[in-house]
Structure formats: C-alpha cells, structure tokens
Amino acid sequence: MEESDGEGRISQTRLKVQDVFAMTDSSTRILTQWNRNNQPVGDSSSLLAGFLGQVASNFGNFPVLYENWSQVPEQYKNNVYLNTIQANFVVNDDKHKQYILRSLGNKWKDKRCRLFDKYHNWELSVEENIQNHPPHIPQDHWAIFVRYKRSAKAMDIANKNAANRAKLVIPHILGYKTLARKRDELETIHGREFSRAEMYQLSHKKPDGTFVNEEARELHEKLQEQMQNCSENEAFMRVCGKEHPGYVRGMGLGVSPSQIVGSSSGATSSTTSIESNERMEQMQAEIESLKAQVAEIDSLKAQVAEVDVLKQHIAFLMQRAKGDETPDLESPINKRSSEGSHMPQGGNSPATI
C-alpha cells in the first residue's frame, strides 16, 4: 500500500482498515488507483472498500431514520466525504466522489437492514420494539425506523426485493474481489482490454473450466449466439434485460449504461433510451425525496397548530385561576356560544310584556 505525506513523499506499507482509523498524522493519506471507468483498483481498493463499510455502519454519520439513501441530507454526505474519506485517502476527482457516495449508500442500506434484523422482533408490538432499541441508536431515530420498516410500503418493497433475490441463481467465483479489480489485474498481465463477455466467463467458471451451474452455462451460450448478430452490449441487454444506473453487468459498481454502449448499429437509439431511463429514475428519486420533505413540513405545521391551541387554552385557564369572572379569552377547546351562556337553565324564556 502506498502512502503520501503532506510534502509529497510516498512510502510503501501494509495496512488494515483499523490502521487507517488509527492514523494520527493528518498529513498522511493513502494513494488510490482508479481505472478508465473511475472504479478503484489495485490493493488500495480493498482497503477503501473496508473503510467505507466501517464508515457506513456508523449511524452517527448517516442516521437510520431516513427511508432511503436519497433522503439522507447532502450535508451529511459531503461532511463525511471531506472530513473522513479525503482526510485518509487521496481522492479528489468528482467521479471518484460519485463512486464513493454510491458505495456508501449501498453499504448503509445493507448495514441498516442487518441492524433491523438483529434488534427487531416481529412477535413484539411496535412500542415494545421501540423500547428495545440498539444502545448506540437514539430511541427517537429507532422509533421512526421501526415504524417505517413495519409500514405497508416498506414491507411491499421488502417482498419485491426478496422475490428479485430469489431469481439470482448464478453465483460468481471472485469472492470479495471486485470485477473492476480482477479486470485490471488481467489487463496488466496480458496487456489488452477484457470485454464484458470475457469477464462473465472468468467470473462464473470454476478452476476446472466448467461453469458454476447450468444456468450460467446457458446464459453464456445465449450471449454468444446474440453476439453473432449485434454488439456485445446489445447482446447483454437482450439476454439479461435492461441495465440499472450505477451498475452494469460484467463491469461492476460505478459504471452507468451510457458509458459502455458502443457506436455500432442500433447503439444510438439504445444510448438514448438508456440515458432517458436514467434521467427518469433520477427524477423519480428526486420527486420521492421532495414528497417526503413536504410530508414532514405538513406534519410540523400540524404540530405547531396543536401547540398554539394548547397555549391559548393554558392562557384561558390561567386567567380563570386568577379569579377573573369576566375573562376576555374564551377557551379554544371548550367553546360555548354566547347565546347559550345567557339562556336560563331550565324552562322556556319569559314572554315579553
């Protein structure tokens, strides 16, 4: 691992994640390597990944009370990036920041789910689960989190995610090593670029040369068949379905579909469609975030209105307590009509003479 001090001197050392947190010299930072797709590679990539995992699991950085990563305030993200990530790693490019924040978001989501599974008990009531909050999580944060996770909306999302995970029947053999790092190693050794199809084979074949299962072999054959008539990227779309923003099959985290679509026939329309889908999904995420903010504001307004009513009622009671028989204030809670207050207690009103 390479370190750089404040004077530009570079030294080699072996570090673990905890060693990074223990570094006291603020001028020393770890050098990082990035490939052409702005993904971390080399030995420092695993150290960075482990460090980001620790940062994401500290819910003082990113509280659990937010429904999703897009709702976490940008102030929190920028603060962590500047004072925690950049303070320990040499990462200055905007593209690096995009990758790091996306990785933090994925890790925060996973850590939050594990926390819920560890401390929440479906056999207990909501209030009982709130009382059983993790010691390092504020109870009010945990209460919001628990109520959200038990909502119909959250459970519907969880069921859909579980159904999607059940469809993932093709494991890879890379372990903790990312596709980007494996590709970088291969390209360094062989002196050439490795395609998505090649990376699919390498990451789904066992040491004896056979595929990890029959599904992996069949998918490979379909890709090869489609690639006879179209580009590699188009073949992946036809066989595997559309790509998602921030992750491309055979490329890994941090690569958007628009980065890898080539200039072959039909690629222009594919690029336009993919970029449109990306923009639509980003806009939808922004809309959901705005809706959540509006709902929060409406809730605060309602609470303020309730407080105002209580203040008026307290003022009314205090005036009565002072012995004022003709108070100027009328209780906003137990109002009586002025007409009713002057009517006789019983019988009909006397006739006018």
From TrEMBL:
Domain of life from the UniProt record: Eukaryota
Record region (Disordered): 323-353
Keyword Coiled coil included in the entry's annotation: yes
Coiled coil location: 273-300
Pfam families listed in its UniProt record: Transposase_24 (PF03004)
Alphabetic keyword roster: Coiled coil
Entries under InterPro entries matching the protein: Probable_transposase_24 (IPR004252)
Coiled coil recorded as keyword: yes
Protein name (database record): Transposase
Species: Flemingia macrophylla
